[in-house]
């Protein structure tokens, strides 16, 4: 399935977030600047892309008609996702942040019953609550086994403070991101393309990021040149490229909960790219044999997701034609 390939590609660019956020924290940068600067740097790129593609009129129309829910779910998807993620980087190494973040692939599946499927029948429109795709959930747990194996060699170094301030915020973010993303897709119903949706959500949250930036300026002073440069890289790589690719992939399968779970599971590959990135940039050690086994299991799990998304869909069509 092409959407899984797009999801894996997005995870490569997302990995930059975990590596550089940790790098900025190690060099004395504040998480307040790391979180807000990303969205400030995203904005001009998104404005230019949307202006030259389809313009702003569709965005204005949606915001006028659904101002409050769009603002709400933009905050859930962006602010309640990224602020806790950068905060956790102050207490946790990149591998732990990226590893805990993989809970989002389970969160996405578990959130399925919170969404409704609209069906047009001869008696009118009927809303049916989605059911948890059990096959997708089973494959997701296989991927999580791989994630756990990667984490085991580092478990002895995790303190109580790290668990409280470096893990719990990520657990919160792991549920906020898929919830906000799915709710926004449900709200818009495909009326905006991916670039327009990301721009709209970014603009809706800019007031929050301005407040966070003001707090940073008062409490820790202006960001360093190094943090500005690294935040710019994160903004372009993770904020513009990765977010757009991931939203593009989820938009294309938004009506199929099994495929949507498969696309969200591609984010598990981030952990592999983060480990490789931290090895080359931050000088962490080569993964242990048990961690390498975990990486192999993640790859197997992703392959199963791809097979199920392709074969399961084809089999469903065959059964419908047969009946």
From TrEMBL:
Coiled coil: none
Keywords: Membrane, Transmembrane, Transmembrane helix
Transmembrane segment boundaries: 7-24, 30-50, 70-89, 101-120, 132-152, 158-177, 198-222, 228-249, 290-311
Keyword Transmembrane helix applies: yes
Protein name per UniProt: Multidrug resistance efflux transporter family protein
Species this chain originates from: Sporosarcina pasteurii
């Amino acid at each position: 399935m092409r959407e899984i390939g797009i999801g894996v590609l997005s995870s490569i660019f997302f990995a930059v977030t975990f590596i550089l956020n940790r790098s900025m924290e190690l060099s004395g940068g504040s998480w307040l600047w790391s979180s807000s600067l990303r969205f400030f740097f995203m904005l001009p790129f998104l404005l230019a892309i949307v202006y030259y593609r389809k313009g702003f009129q569709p965005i204005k129309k949606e915001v006028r008609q659904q101002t409050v829910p769009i603002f709400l779910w933009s905050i859930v998807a962006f602010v309640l996702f990224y602020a806790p993620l950068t905060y956790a980087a102050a207490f946790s190494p990149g591998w732990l942040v990226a590893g805990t973040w993989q809970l989002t692939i389970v969160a996405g599946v578990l959130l399925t019953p919170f969404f409704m499927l609209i069906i047009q029948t001869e008696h009118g429109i009927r809303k049916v609550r989605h059911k948890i795709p059990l096959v997708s959930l089973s494959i997701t747990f296989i991927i999580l086994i791989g994630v756990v194996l990667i984490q085991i060699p580092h478990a002895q170094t995790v303190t109580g403070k790290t668990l409280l301030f470096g893990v719990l915020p990520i657990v919160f973010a792991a549920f906020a991101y898929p919830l906000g993303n799915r709710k926004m897709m449900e709200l818009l119903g495909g009326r905006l393309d991916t670039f327009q949706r990301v721009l709209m959500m970014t603009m809706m949250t800019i007031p929050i990021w301005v407040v966070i930036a003001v707090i940073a300026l008062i409490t820790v002073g202006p960001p360093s040149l190094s943090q500005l440069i690294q935040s710019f890289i994160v903004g372009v790589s993770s904020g513009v490229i990765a977010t757009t690719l991931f939203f593009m992939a989820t938009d294309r399968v938004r009506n199929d909960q099994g495929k949507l779970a498969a696309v969200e599971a591609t984010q598990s590959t981030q952990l592999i790219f983060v480990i490789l990135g931290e090895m080359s940039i931050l000088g962490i050690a080569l993964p242990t044999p048990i961690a390498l086994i975990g990486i192999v299991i993640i790859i197997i799990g992703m392959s199963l997701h791809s097979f199920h998304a392709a074969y399961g869909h084809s089999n469903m069509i065959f059964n419908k034609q047969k009946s």
